[in-house]
Amino acid sequence: MSARFQPAVRAEYELPLLPAPPAAAARPLTWRARLSGWLAGAGWLRKGLLLIVLAGLWEYAARVANNDLLLPGFLQTAEAFVAGMVSGELPRYVGVSLGVLLQGYLAGVLGAFVLTSLAMSSRLGRDLLETLTAMFNPLPAIALLPVALLWFGLGKGSLVFVLVHSVMWPLALNAYAGFRAVPETLRMAGRNYGLGGLRMVTQVLVPAALPAILSGLKIGWAFAWRTLIAAELVFGTTSGKGGLGWYIFQSRNELFTDKVFAGLATVIVIGLLFEHIVFDAVERLTVRRWGMQR
Amino acid sequence: MNVFPLPAPLLRALDLTIDYGAAGKTVRATHEVSFDVYEGDRFVLLGPSGCGKSTLLKAVGGFVQPTAGGLLLRGRRIVKPGPDRIVVFQEFDQLPPWKTVKQNVMFPLLAGGAGRKDAEARALHWLEKVGLARFADAYPHTLSGGMKARVAIARALAMQPDILLMDEPFAALDALTRRRMQEELQALWEEAGFTMLFVTHSIEEALVVGNRILLLSPHPGRVRAEINSHQFDLASSGSPEFQAASQRIHKLLFGEAGHDEAAHADAAKAVHALAVHS
């Protein structure tokens, strides 16, 4: 053995175990640390500041362009928005749109659930789901609108049809991927306790696949929302009651560009509300609480 | 040593041959494996990887169907998974993350049709036994590996199954925690008195945990020996007898490799060879 790298032999020692210092854990933070901690947590504040900056830029650009017909400013749009809200005009259009949207969305979710259940229970069901999603997922739902109009006429039926189409495929794809990724151990534990069939699906597979299902629901919601607005833009009113898309289209025809912008802003605001309030709350109460998602 | 007439075995494996399909061809996991487990046994299946010990356990669990041979629990053939044989897995994801510790222990009880009140009382009782009563309302992702293993054991014991199937339950734990868990399992067995089938690849764990060890040779799994280990526990793990037993097992599993392979050229010869060598 080489003596060159022989470490020195040192004396051993043992210490009695002293009680841990009690105060170390609970020292108050300095105000600086507290402020930076608060800022790091206040994402809404930073995003709000960003929005204000963007609104300022928009207003500046509008004043430079100085053409109300092409680019109304932020303040003008906000005015139109508030006026629309107060007069009850905008809420009425929003109500019509949301009503149709919910119907189509729920029908799509139901269809996706049936399709994935089939896929989970049989080989043929799996082939069916894989074939159908491969065919229809890349097809924009709005492209089916002409066919839908032919079949269901000018009305709610056509809208619901394209909405179902826009929700079902992405959701089925996500839910199916989620089901397949459920750990084998968890499935075996379920079978061990005598669970099978629908009880296995509801008590083990659905909660275990919830992160994927939720992300599918979110994607489906966004797809449905944009499909609806686009469809309403194309054929507008149904028996005298139009939705938000119709409002935007109609306002453009009448050259109320500020109303067009107010309508667009409403679309964005509703999207943000659902994303940040509904889905966020669901995630906080489920998958994030369970440590399945950060 | 006195020899008593043996009672009827709780679990019988009779010439169990198990094949499984992998990448288009069938692979033989075990070949004509027989063993008997009696009430109160801590029966260990020990062997290197590829000896089919986990497959055997899954067959007892009812998850895998044997190609030939039979598996009898209390004289009845095992055909599918059931709550009379609860498995404790090695993986931490055996605990549904969306259920609290208490709900996890209650889960199989409720699935089996127990009342909510009764299930809750039993869950709390067994959580107390494994020292986790304080964490009844915690979610699994907040627990350490050892605590998750304890929850899985409490969940299995709360079902009071005929036999507890443990598939390398401590293999994913660190060495110090594993030792603690072996100790606690021993204490639980002394207190609650259950029967278990325990799969491991660690000779030391087999000697400490088990009272009877089935040694399996790999590719495919065949019985090499069945030995007693009731005399050992963690306290005696440094003793010369323990070392001797450990070396004997090591020799049985890994020694005389060339000789062994030749002898096992076919099944008939293998049985003959075993009889001659042992």
Descriptive terms for the model:
heterodimer; A: about 290 residues; mainly alpha; MetI-like fold; 12 helices; B: about 280 residues; alpha/beta; Rossmann fold; 2 domains; six-stranded mixed β-sheet; globular
Q: What does this entry look like structurally?
A:
The complex is a heterodimer of chains A (294) and B (278). With 294 residues, chain A is mostly helical. In chain A, 73% of the residues lie in helices and 0% in strands. In chain A, helix 4 (89-121) crosses helix 10 (210-235), helix 5 (123-136) crosses helix 7 (156-180) and helix 10 runs parallel beside helix 11 (244-253). The longest helix of chain A has 33 residues, at 89-121. The longest helix of chain B has 18 residues, at 175-192. Residues 257-278 of chain B have low confidence and may be disordered. With 278 residues, chain B is an alpha/beta fold. Chain B has helices at 53-61, 101-111, 116-129, 145-158, 175-192, 203-209, 240-254, 257-263, 267-277, and strands at 11-22, 25-37, 42-46, 68-73, 76-77, 85-88, 163-167, 196-200, 212-217, 222-228. Chain B contains 9 helices and 10 strands. Chain B folds into 2 domains: 11-84 and 163-277, P-loop containing nucleotide triphosphate hydrolases (Rossmann fold, 3-Layer(aba) Sandwich); 95-160, no CATH class. In chain B, helix 5 (175-192) links the parallel strand 7 (163-167) and strand 8 (196-200). The chains are: A mainly alpha (294), B alpha/beta (278). At the A-B interface, helix 8 and helix 9 of A face strand 6 and helix 2 of B.
Helices and strands in order, then pairings?
The complex is a heterodimer of chains A (294) and B (278).
Chain A lengths: L30 H11 L1 H23 L8 H14 L1 H33 L1 H14 L8 H8 L3 H25 L3 H9 L4 H12 L1 H26 L8 H10 L3 H29 L9
Chain B lengths: L10 E12 L2 E13 L4 E5 L6 H9 L6 E6 L2 E2 L7 E4 L12 H11 L4 H14 L15 H14 L4 E5 L7 H18 L3 E5 L2 H7 L2 E6 L4 E7 L11 H15 L2 H7 L3 H11 L1
Parallel strand pairs in B: 3-8, 3-9, 6-7, 7-8
Antiparallel strand pairs in B: 1-2, 1-4, 4-5, 9-10
